[in-house]
Amino acid sequence: MRQSVIHWFRFASPQSFYPLAGRMIPWFWAATAAFGIAGLWISFFVAPTDAQQGEGYRIIFIHVPASWMSMFLYLVMAFWAGLGLALNTRLSGMMAQALAPTGALMAALSLWTGALWGKPMWGAWWVWDARLTSELLLLFLYLGFMALQAAIDDPRRADKAGAILALVGVVNIPIIYFSVKWWNTLHQGSTINLTKAPSMAQTMLWGMLLMALCFWMYSIAVALTRVRAIILERERHTEWVKHALE
Amino acid sequence: MHWNSVAEFFAMGGYALYVWGSFGACALLMIAEPLLARRRLSEVRRSLIRERLADELELQQKSQ
């Protein structure tokens, strides 16, 4: 018991996390490629043509994973930010900072693919619908978090300010998720939820899940690369960094 | 497999602009982001190595 506790805290220091992240990154890239190839194969060659939307529906295979990741990454980012605020651990703030650009990218992709899907199906690139608007707000929360951190020179203070913004913004996540239920929106209801059987063909579901796993592995790989850069930037005056770069 | 030709695949049943616009933007961003992250890492590493070299040179000069 005692051993395992110590073990966990060991990796919570930037010094031991830096090499660990370096060793993990290639595996996450391999997983990204494997899930991506399988997911794209199903998306384009196995999943049947949709009865109502023809081939246009194939946007779902990146729209839904990007939207999921944009929400999930925000929760993970807020978790690390909150942990840093509560325990004052060095690595937590760096993790939150490393996740923000990837989350912003996912939110932007979700909106972009949504616009390209909305145009042929609804006849509009954009509507001020509850789900679309709350997703746009999510993108602004990510950008606001990044801008706020960039505006404060002292990294520990930047972490604190960013953490408060991130934690307040968490309110938006259930709003996005349940917006299609709470309001009468143009956006369709959730394709998958925990209580009902999915309302789509099995192969479409598999394609979407594989693409979601691909996006997930991608996010981890790129965030780990970024966190390594942030670790070196912030710890550059420490003794261990000098020995870490052989 | 339900595509009869390559052209039919790229036409996406008339939705080519929307489907390829989505997948293209996705590919572009997901290639650019890791490259930028990697560049940031190698830049800080290079500057740290330079700094260490400078320190070593300074030490050598002092000992002489």
Task: Provide keyphrases for this structure.
heterodimer, A: 246 residues, mainly alpha, 78% helix, B: 64 residues, 84% helix, rod-shaped
Helix and strand pattern of chain B: HH
Principal-axes shape call of chain A: globular
- Specify which chain pair forms the largest interface: A-B, 37 and 31 residues
Low-confidence stretches of chain A: none
Shape of chain B: rod-shaped
Note the main sheet of chain B. Answer: none
> What percent of the residues of chain A sit in helical stretches (DSSP H or I)?
over 70%
Number of separate strands of chain A: 0
Distance from first to last alpha carbon of chain B: 75 Å
Radius of gyration from the alpha-carbon trace of chain B, in angstroms: 25 Å
What's the helical proportion of residues of chain B?
over 70%
| Tally of individual helices of chain B | 2
- Beta-strand portion of chain A reads under 5%
List segments of chain B where confidence is low: pLDDT < 50 over at least 5 consecutive residues: none
Average pLDDT metric of chain B:
92
Count helical runs of chain A: 9
Q: For the terminal residues of chain A, how far apart are their CA atoms?
A: 35 Å
Report the average pLDDT across residues of chain A: 90
Radius of gyration of chain A: 20 Å
What does this protein structure show overall?
The complex is a heterodimer of chains A (246) and B (64). Chain A has helices spanning 2-11, 14-46, 60-87, 90-122, 130-151, 155-169, 172-182, 202-234, 239-244. Chain A has 246 residues and is mainly alpha-helical. Chain A has one domain. Chain A is globular, with a radius of gyration of 20 Å. Chain B is rod-shaped, with a radius of gyration of 25 Å. Chain A binds chain B through residues 44-46, 48-49, 54-56, 58-59, 62-63, 66, 101-102, 105, 108-109, 112-113, 116-117, 119-120, 218, 221-222, 225-226, 228-229, 232-233, 236, 241-242, 245, and chain B through 1-3, 9, 12-15, 17-19, 21-23, 25-26, 29-30, 33-34, 37-38, 40-41, 43-45, 48-49, 51-52.
